[in-house]
Each structure stands twice: as C-alpha cells, then as structure tokens.
Design a protein that fits this description.
The chain has 61 residues and is mostly helical. Helices cover 70% and strands 0% of the residues. The mean pLDDT is 95.
C-alpha cells in the first residue's frame, strides 16, 4: 500500500464514530490470527471500507 493510500484510508477511518471504529476493530481481532500487524489491519480496513473503487477514480491506484 502506498503512503497516499494509507493517508486516505486513515482519513476515511476517522470519519467513523468511536463506537463504529470499536466494532470494526473487534471484527478484525476476531478474524486475526496471532501476531497481526498494523499492515494487516490496514489491509482489513481497505477491504472493509471497500475503498478501491474510490482510489481508482481519484488515481491513487
């Protein structure tokens, strides 16, 4: 994932309420095997937020 993609993903993440973020993070933890990294969470978040279409539209992909 590029830095531009990470930056945009974190912007999108911050649009969610703390409660929504907690639910999404719980889902990640439930599906995560041991020793999941920040990169694993970003990949999960990318899929969960279905952001690839937007990235293609704005040229981030």
């Amino acid at each position: 994932m590029t830095q531009a993609q990470i930056d945009d993903l974190l912007i999108e993440w911050n649009l969610y309420t703390k409660n929504q973020q907690a639910l999404i993070f719980q889902e990640f933890q439930a599906n995560c095997e041991q020793n999941c990294s920040d990169d694993d969470f970003l990949a999960f978040l990318r899929q969960k937020l279905q952001i690839d279409g937007y990235w293609k539209k704005v040229g981030i992909i």
